[in-house]
Structure formats: C-alpha cells, structure tokens
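Render this sequence as a predicted structure.
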Amino acid sequence: MAAVSKDKVASEAWFLDTGCSNHMTGHKDWLIEFDGSKKSKVKLADNRSIQAEGTDMDCNLLSVGQLIEKGFSVTIKNENFELYDPANMLVLRTPLAKNRTFKTIINTTEVECMKAVSEEKQNWLWHLRFGHLNFKYLNQLVNKGMVTGLPRFDMPDKICDGCLVGKQPRNAFNKSLPMRSSSVLEAVHSDVCGPFDEKSLGGNIYCITFVDEYSRKM
C-alpha cells in the first residue's frame, strides 16, 4: 500500500504507508534534530528516484515498517487501522478514507505541549533518581563533570511533595509499647494509603495494609 494523492492535503495530515521505508515530511520546522550532511534518495512507485529533501512534499508519510521496527504493532480490521505501542497500549485508530487510504491528523501545537510536559517530568525523574537531591546540586554535578549523560536543569516552580513531607519534624515513637495481643490475628492494624498521584498498572490510586500485632507480619 502506498499513499498517492494529487490534491493538496492539510499540513497536519499524515498518511500511514506500508510502502514507505521511512517517515517523511516537508516541514523542516517540525524536526527537533536535523542532520543536513546525510544525503539519500527515495525510490518512487514508477522506479524514479528523487532527492530525500525538500519543502515541496504535499503528503506527510508515516512508515508502518519503521513503526514496527521500533516495537509498535499494527492491526487492520473492519476498515480501521490501529497502532499499538510496545506495551500493547492503543495509541492511534483511524478509519479507511474514501480514497482507500488511512489518514490521521496530528496537531503540531499539541506535540509541542506534550514535549514540554515530558521535559518537566524528566527533570523530576532525575531528582528522584538521585534521592531527592535539589536541582542546585544536580547542576553542580553537571558543571564539575562528576556524572556523564546528565542534562542541565532549570529551577522548577513547584515544590517536591516528598521533600516537603520528609523535612517536617515530628516526635519520636516510643521504643517499647505494651503488647495487647497474645496470639496471631487477635489484633490486626490496618491503614489506607492514598490517593496517589500516579495510578498503578491496574488503574488504582489507593492501597491498604494489614499488620498482625503479635507476629508483626504484614
């Protein structure tokens, strides 16, 4: 299957193409990293070859083969194209168009917003990986070359909830408490935790614990 159209399509429209070996677009401004030193040619359906560079390309093409190579999977049934990520989560569904092609619209503004959110989450991820180390010291690790592969960080506007709770003082617990139970399951302590910011794999935001007072087993 190859997407061929004589009409000018919307700039955000992408055709899912099984005959395309690589993703292709005529919008250079959409690319985050561009290496102009690499030159290659694209072979067309009529055996003609053209230079794989230029802004005159009307159709944006998503290579199904390249998506599969990255671990994605594809199903085509009931005149619907479905794309699943490596975790088998549905990321795209589009119906068969009148010209027997599969087309989807990708809004570039939304992509930029998602990228900004992703970068912010990445900063907090490094904060957690280094045991809630503050961003000033994280940048010192970068400046002094103490860690390789660590990006520079901007000071966030938000405060880490874990750091805020961890720095709050409280009275010490008693080292010894009177035992009120004389056998297993005579007294069971329970506690409900949540709601958590991140859902579990099953979509849950609460957890509950049970601790037997006599055996101290959970």
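Summary. The CA atoms of residues 48 and 109 lie 35 Å apart. The two ends are 58 Å apart (CA to CA).
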